[in-house]
Amino acid sequence: MATYADLPGLMAAMTGDEKHAAAASSTLDVLWVLYDQVLRVTPELAEDRDRFYLSKGHGPMAYYAVLAAKGFLDPAEFASFGAFRSPLGHHPDRVLVPGVEISSGSLGHGLPLAVGTALGLRARKLDAHVWVLLGDGELDEGSNFEAIAYAGRLGLSALHVVVIDNGSASHGWPGGLESRFAVEGWSTERVVGQDHAKLAAACTAPHPGRPRLVVAEVDPVFPDLH
Amino acid sequence: MAGIMRERFADVATELLDTDDRLAVLTADLSAKLFDDARGRHPDRVLNLGIREQLLISVAGGLSLAGMRPIAHSFAPFLVERPFEQIKLDLNHQAVGAVLVSAGASYDIASGGRSHQSPGDVALLATLPDWTIHVPGHADEAEAMLRAAAAADDLVYLRLSNQANESAFGQGFHVLRRGGAGTVLAVGPLADTVLAATAGLPVTVLYTSTVRPFDHEFLRAAVADQATPSIVLVEPYLAGTSTQEVSEALRDRPHRVLGLGVGRDELRNYGSPRQHAIAHGLGAAGLRKSIVTFLGQPAR
């Protein structure tokens, strides 16, 4: 089985989206911890699997690498990343890539979709959880806030959000982005750095009766922005 | 007070929720009260999200991804126009199905003004692939469409209106009358008005309450015996919405097409739906004049 050490090599096989190289590596540790230690999902994609929604869809190389490492897709596809007939685009497509649960690219869609899926799984009495990965810049999109408020009101405890905070939001989040979730009743925690043990602990801490936010703080992608 | 079609929608959806546990009904405050009973019986599947229309569509997509059959409802401008990117990406691009049911149509809420009117909804959805678009002319047609949509898993738009015909004509395309001077296709609630407008004129009158997919074969067969068919479309939403469908149906033959419907210019007037219809040339007299001019027929 592949390990974390294999991931950089896998990512290097995908060229052409260097503009999003930083975005790709900021997500790598979170993706690895989730797929390796937290999510109950296999390439068989059972009906009661945990769902992972990559809302921050740009720079998906880390995501594809983790999916390959876990046996969802064939790394031989990486050589054609972004080519006309490749299933691997610069934003992932659930119709083309096994293991990709939502097609993303436009920001602010993954979390609202995840709210719907969490509601659907609850209605079907399936004991599956829904995880969404967003960026701090992505939170600029107002559509997220419809979802945050409604999920908070309902106490959707099967919903988990991880926000990669690399300080890329143009106007920042005074008081911390997590405060916007906390005021809506979410359980929140901030993890600084890319320590896998700390990330795993934050992602598995109990939060009965409330949806959960973990903020994964990484190096600022634009150090001179603020 | 909810209109007849909207009440029928609420009644039938409530009944269907009892027998199909895949179904979910979603509202964004508007018409939420119509589902109070259903929500009491099925709190996990009848959801009022508050005034959050982007979320309304995204939750429909997310429910569909989880194996449910969502029915989302609001006024047409808030259901289709406001969250159009969500329709494009959270429904079409995810390759999932949903049923969108609107009320209000083009000018039902005449006194409410432009913000509550959506003559452009059908044209907007028609820019996306895979949508079945129903424009029922009667509550019985709407009911049949809803039952069929609830049992399926595709993308369906059901455009309810307070404007309706005296009787239901049924599903699909129909021939209402035959005549040789031209062909008038009446869509949905405008059928009775079109019949009144063409009384005594030697024209074929066709009817449909489903405009996408457009039945090209039916139209081709209806005008097969005409050298250069003249077609008049009468649509209760933006004029010209389906002229390309007619052109596509008749692409191998010379033909003429006139698309009548709601004007593109904003009508900054209030009053009643009937007054709006007349202002758009969609009353019987206005339609007759347009049809007669186009077909070069003497008005009798």
Structure report:
The complex is a heterodimer of chains A (226) and B (300). Chain A is built from seven helices and five strands; from the N terminus they run H-H-E-H-H-E-H-E-H-E-H-E. By secondary structure, chain A is α/β, with parallel strands linked by helices. Chain A has a five-stranded parallel sheet, sandwiched between helices. The longest helix of chain A has 18 residues. Chain A is globular and about 45 Å long. With 300 residues, chain B is of the alpha/beta class. Chain B has two domains: 156 residues, Thiamin diphosphate (ThDP)-binding fold, Pyr/PP domains (Rossmann fold, 3-Layer(aba) Sandwich); 123 residues, Rossmann fold. In chain B, the strands form two sheets. In chain B, strands 2-1-3-4-6-5-10 form a seven-stranded mixed sheet, with helices on both faces. In chain B, helix 1 packs parallel to helix 7 and helix 8 crosses helix 12. The longest helix of chain B is centred in the first third of the chain and has 16 residues. The N and C termini of chain B lie far apart (41 Å). Classes of the chains: A alpha/beta (226), B alpha/beta (300).
Number of helices of chain B: 12
CATH level 1 class label of the largest domain in chain B: Alpha Beta
Helix/strand class of chain A: alpha/beta
Major sheet of chain A: 5 strands, parallel
What is the overall silhouette of chain A?
globular
Full CATH superfamily name of chain A: Thiamin diphosphate (ThDP)-binding fold, Pyr/PP domains
Most strands sheet of chain B: 7 strands, mixed
Portion in helices of chain A:
25-40%
In a few lines, what is going on in this structure?
The complex is a heterodimer of chains A (226) and B (300). With 226 residues, chain A is an alpha/beta fold.
Key features of this structure:
heterodimer, A: 226 residues, alpha/beta, Rossmann fold, five-stranded parallel β-sheet, 7 helices, 5 strands, B: 300 residues, 2 domains, seven-stranded mixed β-sheet, five-stranded mixed β-sheet, 12 strands, 36% helix, 21% strand
